[in-house]
C-alpha cells in the first residue's frame, strides 16, 4: 500500500482503518475481476480452437471411412478378377486335356 494513503487514513483511527480495508478490498476485487475476465477470454479462445479441432477430426474420420470403403470395393474387385482367372485357367486346362 502506498505510504501517501496510509498517513491520512491512520489519523482517522478506526474509520481510517475501515477505509483502508475497503480500499484494499476494492483493489483485490478489481484484480480478481480482471483475472476472471482474462480466464474467460482464454476459455472462449480454447472453445473456438476445440471446435476447429473437432471439425478436423470429423472430416478425417469421414475421409478414412471413404478410403476404407474404396479399399473394400477394390478388394472385392480383385477377388472377382482372381476368380475369373481361375475359371479361365481351368477352361484352358480342359481345352488342352481335350486337345491332347
What would you say this structure looks like, in words?
With 100 residues, the protein is an all-alpha fold. It has one domain. The protein contains two helices and no strands. The protein has helices at residues 3-10, 13-99. Helix 1 crosses helix 2 (13-99). The radius of gyration is 40 Å and the shape is rod-shaped. The model has no long low-confidence stretch (mean pLDDT 88).
Task: Describe how the helices and strands are arranged.
Blueprint: H1 3-10, H2 13-99
Helix pairs in contact: 1-2
Brief description of this entry?
The protein is an all-alpha fold.
Summary keywords:
rod-shaped, 95% helix, 100 residues, mainly alpha, single chain
Q: Hey, roughly how much beta strand do the residues contain?
A: under 5%
Largest sheet: none
Low-confidence stretches: none
In total, the number of domains comes to 1
Mean pLDDT: 88
**Structural category:** mainly alpha
Note the overall shape: rod-shaped
Distance between the termini: 113 Å
CA-based gyration radius:
40 Å
Provide a count of the helices. Answer: 2
Task: List the helices and strands in order.
Answer: HH
Q: Got a strand count?
A: 0
Fraction of residues in helix: over 70%
